[in-house]
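SAMPLE LOG
Freezer: B-3
Tube label: C17
Construct: single chain, 342 aa
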Amino acid sequence: MITQPNPSHTSSYPILETAREQVFRNGQGLDESQLLEILELPDEAIPEALQLAHEVRLAHCGEDVEVEGIISIKTGGCPEDCHFCSQSGLFDSPVRGVWLDIPELVKAAKETAATGATEFCIVAAVRGPDIKLMNQIKFAIDRINQEVDINIACSLGMLTQRQVDQLAEWGVHRYNHNLETARSYFPEVVTTHSYEERLDTCNMVKAAGMELCCGALIGMGETTAQRAELASQLAALEPHEVPLNFLNPRPGTPLENQGIMDGKDALRAIAAFRLAMPRTVLRYAGGRELTLGDLGTREGLMGGINAVIVGNYLTTLGRPADADLKLLVELNMPIKELQKSL
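STRUCTURE (predicted):
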């Protein structure tokens, strides 16, 4: 059940009092040093931080929850060395390159729409799309639009200006390109391309008028201060949506022995990211099933999250779509209706 804001509430934690005035009342996100204070709150303060984040979400985003499904048109064989990703062709990972044909893609879009999702994201494990892949994407977009009433998003790696312009012209609603981690930690996670290269694609997407989906993957060994840095850097980019992922260590990758992030730290991060970006779509994404479990998933939805990916992810299993949808109904969270903007 959605609880309504309590403007008269006072806190024994000064940073939460500051956040109530600055974020809830004035709509101004916390800065990096303030976010670090949120991330370092004691365990007993977590429920209060989540409640405030929830009130911020209601005040600045509304009650609706956006549901999205994702599917990979090319899985595995990527030439990049992102240390968390089993789709890299450089690691001894069980994932191997597979291409999905267009009829299957259309079928998946229909199944996604049937769950109530408003967004369908086409993902390819590549550094960036070549001409062949761009042509396939164009054909897939046309076929999906003919048969399914759903917004189409893409995640195809780093783009050229021409590719950005093409995707915008074809009606791609949103483009996903994650920063993943803080600028200061990025070289520890990826060496085959730079943080700046990712940032360039993000800026071109925004300039072309597409919505930018730019996410985070936390629990990769970064410090708490670097999580605050990442949240601050994402806030400065002003993406429409931020998927919040938690590391699910994959066999054969350099981070396979990293371990699973503590659930309480994950909840602190949910609150912090909402308080950094009061108006942003903050989406539950990969790893929440392991890091938070059923109870934590519920707490996060009542702590600032206002979007979910339903079903499976690219190479890992998610919660069943009906489990998430039932939970949204139980919490009285209305699912956002489709509104095509392009």
